[in-house]
Design a protein that fits this description.
heterodimer, A: 249 residues, mainly alpha, Four Helix Bundle (Hemerythrin (Met), subunit A), 9 helices, B: 151 residues, alpha+beta, OB fold (Dihydrolipoamide Acetyltransferase, E2P), 2 domains, five-stranded mixed β-barrel, elongated, disordered C terminus
Amino acid sequence: MKKWFHQWVSPPHLYERADRYAKVFLFLAIASILVALYGGLVLAPADYQQGDAFRIIYVHVPSAWLSMFAYAFMAGASFVALVWRFSAAHAVATVIAPIGAVFTLLCLLTGSLWGKPMWGTWWEWDARMTSELVLLLIYLGYIALRLSFEEQAKADKAAAIFALIGVVNLPIIHYSVYWWNTLHQGATVSKIGKPSITWDMGWPLLLMTIGFMLFFGAITLMATRGELLSRERRTKWVKELVDINRGVN
Amino acid sequence: MKARQKRLLAVLLTLAGVGIATAIILKAFGANLLYYTTPTELVTETKTADYVPKKYHLGGMVKEGAVVRKDNSLDVKFVLTDYTSEIPVEFDGILPDLFREGQGIIAIGVMQADGTLKAEKVLAKHDENYMPPNLPTEKPSDNLNKPKGSY
């Protein structure tokens, strides 16, 4: 068990293992997203209030969850990297930031497209929307902070602390609709008790979220490989890897 | 104490500090973070001594049977209620598709001297329930009968 865990945090092992996992994740992600798309756009009935317009939920809600899940993962990696000094965890946190930012942007854009026909507005400064926008700004701030350091070790440390401080925004996003009056409605699925969505409309949403998570896992692993090679370019294992590939060619 | 434990403690203390600071800030902002005012809150406010008519985001349910439309015009009058207090609203623009009696609505506009809100913009709020239209029995119980704060 301990050995298995240590292989995840050792850069050469992670580099090798990430490739295999990424391929499996990507295959499963594509399969579940395709099935969920068919379920959501074709099989699920129209909503009693919103008609077919509700179907954007199958992109909006998974993006919103992933924007927060990615952040939690990035902060978790930063925490591990800071306390246990695993350099590979810094690499993982580095690559998650742009991925999480894209999910956040996707959530904001699909929400805006949904808001116009249903609520009658593209954007309002209510607590849910504003806190999600702040999440995007935190991701961008994290990326900018990293870019502002020349030295890798300093960039890693500053960015990790920044990522941990940003965690306070996650509960604010989730509970904003309960703590304050907002235009955005309360949670449909992520709450205690029965989800407020019928099963024939709900299963494609769950499957789509699983698909998004697998996709997130796949691209994070792929990007981590690139980041590891770049960070460890002066080490023996990367040089050996390059030599092996040269020999093949 | 080992170096790793020191780092762990430092990180946890930082997190706790940031969390407490954020909680205090949010508490201090209080009502400014609310997106809308309920009819009851607005009525209470109009009765205070230093009340001056200003712009409000008023959120409530469209009262059943109180929507009056004018022929050949977009003018519409309706009443927003939270089942305790009521505020009449005037609007002459395009209403969102979800606007109907019993629906949660946010009207943004300036209070008039006669106690009517002259809306510049009307937004519909929908609930968190998703279901096919042929399940009317479970329907809008949530949307209609919940008291303040849930629409």
